[in-house]
Amino acid sequence: MSEHIETEKAAQLAGEYFGNGYHCAEAVLRALLDTMGEDSEHIVPYATAFGGGFGETFMEACGVISGSLIAIGHKYGRKQQGDNWKEAGHLGRAVVERFMKLHGTCNCGLLRNRFGEEEQMDLCREVVIQGTKSLATILNEKVDEDHASTEQCQEKCTSCA
Question: What are the extents of the domains in the chain?
Answer without folding.
Answer: 7-160
